[in-house]
Amino acid sequence: MRKLASFNDPAAAEALDELLSSRNVPTVVRDGDGGGRAVWIVSEQDLPKAERLLAAFLAHHAAAEQAQARALTLAKVPLQHRLLAHFLLGPITWLLLGASVVVSFYTGLGDERARVELFLIAQPPPASAISGSDWTVWDNISAGQLWRLFTPILLHFHPFHLLFNAFWLRDLGVPSERFLGSFHYSLFLLWSALLSNLAQLVLGLSPNFGGLSGVVYALMGFLWARSHFDPNSGLRVPNGWVIFFVGWMVIGFTGLLDGLLGGSVANYAHLGGFAAGVIYGYIGAMFAKQRERR
Q1: Domain range enclosing 33
Q2: Which of 113, 138, 190, 285 is the most buried (most CB within 10 A)?
Q3: pLDDT tens digits, 149-191
Q4: Maximum C-alpha span of the chain
């Protein structure tokens, strides 16, 4: 046997022991010298693998301690500094939320129809168009208006619709952005917006939809998949949240929620967004596991 690491905090030793055991590295936890707890590996052959897992564990453990220290520090600084600090924790998340609020008020929460059509994935034909013309929902995109593939996420049609999405975007987006980094997080947002909007257009058979909920569902799918398939990622999402989101999506397909959020619910955007997030999280987890094996 060989001693791998010692901790003054018994909880940290137990957490490392659980991690190693989950990766098929037999361990023993004993009292350490001068107090604390020590983690020993049973077989010398497991040492290289155990040292790699230990390095990853210590990195996440240090990050958690730093986050706790930052939280304690934030509580002692003036409000304006705290607001700036919160913004810097997830700037892309807050900018997206701000843009959604601005666009929602600019369009009168759906009442200003001419303004709404600027952000729809497809602009409906004018009323003067001849019935049975060759107009399709792809005309604007074919004409080069590629921004329409993404801008529907900025539209909201009811105050509750906007508040619901803002609440979850903050709680799911900030930790995701901190984990991925702002650049890769921005790519993830574009990916999830694209898939959720196309799913709603193709399966919902109408261009009249909008909202951040497809992106929010993508964030939930990403956090669940990455934490489930890569336990060492340090990401965690409460099971109750996942159950709530899946349940809300199922109820949405029954039609019981129509009207609550200002009209028909974009259920296929939810489904497409969740699938986009799960795919992104699963692929990231597989790459992370490959790196661990090297």
Answers
A1: 2-74
A2: 285
A3: 999 999 998 888 899 999 999 999 999 999 999 999 999 999 9
A4: 87
Q: Which residues contact 70 (CB under 8 A, 6 or more apart)?
A: 85
Q: Are residues 28 and 124 in the same domain?
A: no
Please name the helix (run of DSSP H) or strand (run of DSSP E) that holds residue 285, with its range, or none: helix 267-293
Overall domain count for the chain = 2
- Measured in whole angstroms, how far is the alpha carbon of residue 270 from the centre of its chain? 13
Give the bridge partners for 6, in sequence order: 38
Residues 6+ apart with CB under 8 A from 53: 19, 20, 23, 25, 232, 292
Which residue in the block uniquely carries the two structure tokens 């706790």? Answer: 68
Q: Which residues of 68-94 are buried (b: 16+ CB within 10 A; e: fewer)?
A: eeeeeeeeeeeeeeeeeeeeebbebbb
- C-alpha–C-alpha distance, residues 269 and 271, integer Å: 5
Phi, psi of 205 (to 5 degrees): 60, 30
Q: Domain of 15: which CATH number?
A: 3.30.70.1530
Using DSSP, state whether 239 is helix, strand or coil. Answer: helix
Query: How distant is the alpha carbon of residue 131 from its chain centre?
Result: 43
Asked whether 130 and 112 are in contact (CB, 8 A), the reply is no
